[in-house]
Design goal:
Distance between the termini: 47 Å
Structural class: mainly alpha
Strand content: under 5%
Largest sheet: none
Radius of gyration: 15 Å
Mean pLDDT: 85
Oligomer: single chain
């Protein structure tokens, strides 16, 4: 049971790393592709 809870917590943390702040979307460190940048800019109207 405890191992399942640990695994679940680690999966949640991993999924949280998929988020990049919009203000940092052009930072090369995150490797956001051009299509994702375009979709975000259209969504936020920038």
């Amino acid at each position: 049971m405890l191992e399942d809870q640990k695994k679940f917590l680690l999966e949640c943390l991993d999924k949280n790393h998929l988020y990049v702040n919009y203000s940092e979307i052009d930072d090369e460190e995150y490797g956001v592709n051009e299509e994702d940048k375009k979709l975000n800019k259209e969504f936020y109207k920038n």
